[in-house]
């Protein structure tokens, strides 16, 4: 069972000032929520280190759809990993560029693999894997 614990933290005054400025910029109204988010972020990161842990995330890709066979290649890769891709959003950014966001879920190792293969495909201008959590294990 989970309750609320209060802790005291000794921290360098300078470091705390910097932290307060940072969290104010990010819109936090108190330190406690900022500390909790930092801890959650570390815990989510930790989950991804284990190749067999179940994870959720997004892969963002930007590419020029005129590059020969690139669309076909990216689609083919996505079909190879269809069980790890829940949904895809495609936006035509301008005449040349496409933005794709894939929602991915599965074993950490496989989700990383599909992201690496897509992002490293020739013609993809930029790509990023964002890791998150299903939230089930976080309060
Ligand atoms: Ni497009």
Task: Please give a structural write-up.
- This protein is of the alpha+beta class and 139 residues long.
- The chain folds into 2 domains: 35 residues; 79 residues, 2-Layer Sandwich (Alpha-Beta Plaits).
- It has 4 helices and 4 strands; from the N terminus they run H-H-E-H-E-E-H-E.
- Strands 2-3-1-4 form a 4-stranded antiparallel β-sheet, with helices on one face.
- Bound molecules: nickel (II) ion.
- The site of nickel (II) ion has 4 residues, from strand 2.
- The site of nickel (II) ion (NI) has 4 residues, from strand 2.
Which terms would index this structure?
139 residues; four-stranded antiparallel β-sheet; alpha+beta; binds nickel (II) ion; Alpha-Beta Plaits
Strand and helix map with partners:
Elements: H1 13-25, H2 31-49, E1 54-64, H3 70-80, E2 85-92, E3 97-107, H4 108-119, E4 124-132
Antiparallel strand pairs: 1-3, 1-4, 2-3
The structure holds nickel (II) ion (NI).
